[in-house]
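In the design runs reported in the main text, the only information available to the sequence generator was the tokenized backbone. The following block is the verbatim input for one such run; it is reproduced so that readers can re-run the procedure and compare outputs position by position.
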């Protein structure tokens, strides 16, 4: 039996799955936490990988890393890390995103060249921030890569000169073109002021090197592309993933080109494309309101489900930590419609409906790009919430399927490792088990939410 290891290096932790390469059966697993915050020393990811993978990695015949997208890992001429990596959820580069967009062609030009309209999440804006605010660190920097690229390089014992990435992660930088499959050096120079060395973009099923124990190393992938591969998404499938961030994504044969910036034109892990909408606020919205209400998960779910749809008129705009989609990095949360009749149950319900309404906006934006959801799959940590599962169909207005709980990002990385090991043309087809199908009647929640969202945007614009 051949075994493969799939690594999910996320914002919060590293998960490692040891998987049977033929069947997809999980043989063993490990986990280790990451430091909290919006920047992180990459060495902490490596330490977490060693801890989570202890007793697992050395048993694998192949390994792949799926990692959080967009993070900026800057290296000097000796391949030393210049500064802690700025993560995707660090919004300090919002002014640089606005400046680069305004000075270099506008949103439509960036979307045509990179598939993206710049927001603070993307690597190009973080490079621009460092060049402007940390010129000494910028002067030391000779190469830049993404979190999964750096970990893949470490697993191989390689140097930055031999570093690799994949299409999915390259497509989230702001200096790679999904139409041509090549870096747009001009955009990198516009962001940083000069050219930098970047990893080679490997083929999806390529073996890019070997570990010290001889295992094949696959290119790895971005976390959302890893989840899509792990889920086995097909045409018409749209996943709504509720983790630290909320993401809405599906597989397409053509790249997205959305000058509004709502839909990012990412690539997937198989050679196709992965149009995606991302919000900064998802599971943590529920965590915040559980804390405010002083209840545990089960009590929170019971409260939310005991309230009527519409939460008695309470509506939450869940931009607690700023927002990426829509691009409102300095926004805060807004709770509207409070009266003397408001209850704790209404507050819990409003939190769930607000968080899900932000994802419903993502489904609408995807449909506008031609990817109409025939099936919505609900995944991520918050999908374990009974309230989220039962309320989602009423907010989305479509039936929802919940696959069996699994680490789909790590499973996707394992599937890519098995693909590289097999040498076949297509990735293996593993069964994920039966899904739970949930139906519901669409409520007027979306109207309440849209009204508050638009009124708040108008108010911010005139400040």
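Verbatim output:
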């Amino acid at each position: 039996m051949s075994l493969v290891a799939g690594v999910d290096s996320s914002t919060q932790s590293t998960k490692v799955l040891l998987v049977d390469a033929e069947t997809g059966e999980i043989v063993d697993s490990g986990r280790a936490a990451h430091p909290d915050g919006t920047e992180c020393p990459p060495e902490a990811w490596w330490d977490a990988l060693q801890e989570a993978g202890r007793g697992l990695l050395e048993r694998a015949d192949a390994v792949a890393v799926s990692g959080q997208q967009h993070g900026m890992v800057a290296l000097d001429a000796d391949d030393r890390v210049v500064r802690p990596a700025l993560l995707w959820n660090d919004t300090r580069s919002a002014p640089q995103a606005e400046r680069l967009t305004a000075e270099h062609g506008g949103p439509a030009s960036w979307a045509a060249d990179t598939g993206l309209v710049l927001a603070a999440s993307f690597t190009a804006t973080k490079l621009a921030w460092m060049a402007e605010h940390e010129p000494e660190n910028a002067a030391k920097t000779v190469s830049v890569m993404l979190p999964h690229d750096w970990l893949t390089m470490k697993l191989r014992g390689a140097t930055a000169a031999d570093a690799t990435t994949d299409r999915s992660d390259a497509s989230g930088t702001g200096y790679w073109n999904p139409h041509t499959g090549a870096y747009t050096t001009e955009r990198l120079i516009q962001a940083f002021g000069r050219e930098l060395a970047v990893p080679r973009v490997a083929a999806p099923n390529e073996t890019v090197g070997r570990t010290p124990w001889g295992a094949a190393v696959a290119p790895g992938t971005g976390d959302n592309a890893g989840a899509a591969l792990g889920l086995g998404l097909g045409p018409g499938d749209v996943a709504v993933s509720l983790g630290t961030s909320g993401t809405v994504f599906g597989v397409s044969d053509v790249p997205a080109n959305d000058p509004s910036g709502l839909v990012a034109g990412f690539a997937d892990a198989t050679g196709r494309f992965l149009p995606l909408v991302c919000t900064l606020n998802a599971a943590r919205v529920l965590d915040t309101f559980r804390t405010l209400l002083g209840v545990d998960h089960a009590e929170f779910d019971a409260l939310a489900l005991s309230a009527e749809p519409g939460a008695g008129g309470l509506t939450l705009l869940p931009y607690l930590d700023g927002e990426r989609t829509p691009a409102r990095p300095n926004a805060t949360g807004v709770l509207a419609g409070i009266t003397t009749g408001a209850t704790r149950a209404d507050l819990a319900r409003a939190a769930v409906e607000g968080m899900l309404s932000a994802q419903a906006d993502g489904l609408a934006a995807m449909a506008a790009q031609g990817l109409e959801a025939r099936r919505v799959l609900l995944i991520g940590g918050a999908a374990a919430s009974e309230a989220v599962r039962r309320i989602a169909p009423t907010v989305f207005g479509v039936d929802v399927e919940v696959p069996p709980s699994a680490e789909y990002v790590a499973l996707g990385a394992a599937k890519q490792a098995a693909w590289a090991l097999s040498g076949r043309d297509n990735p293996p087809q593993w069964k994920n088990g039966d899904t739970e199908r949930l139906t519901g009647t669409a409520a007027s929640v979306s109207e309440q939410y849209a009204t508050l969202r638009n009124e708040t945007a108008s108010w911010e614009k005139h400040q």
